[in-house]
Amino acid sequence: MLTRRYFFYGSLLTSAVPTGGYGSVTSLKALGYKPFYDKLNVAAIGCGGQGGQILNDAARTENIVAMVDVDEKRAAANFAKFSKANKYKDFRVMLEKEGKNIDACTIGIPDHMHATVALACMQAGKSVYVEKPLTRTPWEARLLADAAVKYKVATQMGNQGYSHEAIRTASEILWSGEIGDVKEVHVCSTPGTHPTGLAEPPKETSVPDTVSWDLWLGGAAMRAYAAEYTPYNWRGFFDFGTGQIGNWGIHSMGPVNMALQLGAPTSVEMVKVVGASKLSFPDRAILKFEFAARGSMPPVTVYWHDSAKPSDLEAYHVPGMDTENILPAMENLAEKGRGRASRGMGPGGQGSFGPPPGPRPAGGARMGAGGPGVNVYGPAPEAAKPGILTGNGAVFVGTKGLMSTTQRGEGVQLLPAARWKDYVLPPQLLTRSPGHMMDFIRAAKGGEPACSNFSISGPYAEWMLLGVIAFRVPGKLEWDSKNLRFTNSAEANKYVRPAFRKGWELKL
After folding, report:
1. Smallest Cα–Cα separation from 371: which of 47, 19, 27?
2. Looking at the domain assignment, is residue 291 inside a domain?
3. pTM score over 0.70
4. What own/partner pairs with CB < 8 Å and gap ≥ 24 does 309-312 have?
5. Edge-first strand listing for the sheet containing 63-68
6. Which residues sit opposite 63 in a β-bridge?
7. Same domain, 336 and 264
8. pLDDT of 382 above 90
9. How many distinct structural domains can be found in the chain?
10. Which of 56, 108, 339, 362 has the highest local Cβ count within 10 Å?
11. Where are any strands of DSSP class E within 254-384?
């Protein structure tokens, strides 16, 4: 059976050439290739918040024909905007009724349901765009990577920085040898805007009339509804989300994963924690990932500074950079003659950032993040201080110098700034992207695989999600990637694979 990719790039046997010839529309469609001028029919699963963002990204060029959301209020604006699309609460009903009319699905829902929904769509033959961090557990990330191979559909994880010019330039700088061998990297995030450090579960409240709580839980264990769970703050709870490492780490670690060609780590360990909890992610923490040598690259240790603040004693002080602003500005390649870094990545484009969080009201919540009407928790961001790594970004410590990247990989610079000022960028080695959603759409129409397809993002998410387990289990955890297990902790192995409610089990 010929795959669409084989047809697009390979050569067919003479006996397989259709009567209409290679170029005929009839022969193209018969082989599973959708002409680029034909629009995809897209189903959006998750239509508020980030789910709404990605469905609108797809709608710029494609047809939105079906929409699914378990929360009518959260989805209301986009339900009204795409009034002609059929609406559903249960993705399974949508697939059954709309399956023959759908080419691809965007999936922007709570982390604990990513794998369940994505697998069902892939098994139905649909290409899938799944928001970061792909899944909630390492086992699910491996499952989706295997499913992409089995079901031969186009895939993309929504880590939008992977399509940016600057992340690719950062890789090319490192590969050029400019900063020497990198044996240590420090990556950080701002404090989360979800509950952290909880001592007890949130109190039960009545389920809103617009929410289907059973469908929201999906495969998770049944429990009483609490207003803290929906529509946004689920990400702070171990049972539903992945905290800041899944919310921002998957972005800020992107340049590290790409440039250092990271595979699976040999170990992960939480080396410091503030506000530990058995229910939610801690207030702050530092994780340590150890990776073996990869080809000519030496072993490297990657530190994750979760929710670091400039006032924290444990915040990373970059050696010799006491007067430097550590993280570069976004889009800082323009001064190097590269122009805007990536089509569709600026304000209003694919993956654009919203306004900064607004003022903090009484009660500890912060307005302006998480969407309208969402109570947001955690400390307000502090202003960056020279020489200290805070915000969202990374610092590569090389034997010949330092390099830093910012946000989702949208900015890069050498440190100190004087070294960057006169630096000439190395030749381009990596293909540039048309934009993250367009990259996926091209793949879904039979073009080359997307830059964060599951063969790339699956292994990446898998090792990142080991950090979620390290938040829950103390000590150095030795990882056996081949067998998908920790070799020295039965407790940690409990969290590698989720337990599903009856009827929600996953199987290829």
Report:
1. 47
2. yes
3. yes
4. 309/191, 309/284, 309/379, 309/382, 309/390, 310/382, 310/383, 310/384, 310/385, 310/388, 310/390, 311/382, 312/284
5. 86-88, 63-68, 41-45, 104-107, 127-131, 155-158
6. 41
7. yes
8. no
9. 2
10. 108
11. 267-274, 284-291, 300-306, 316-317
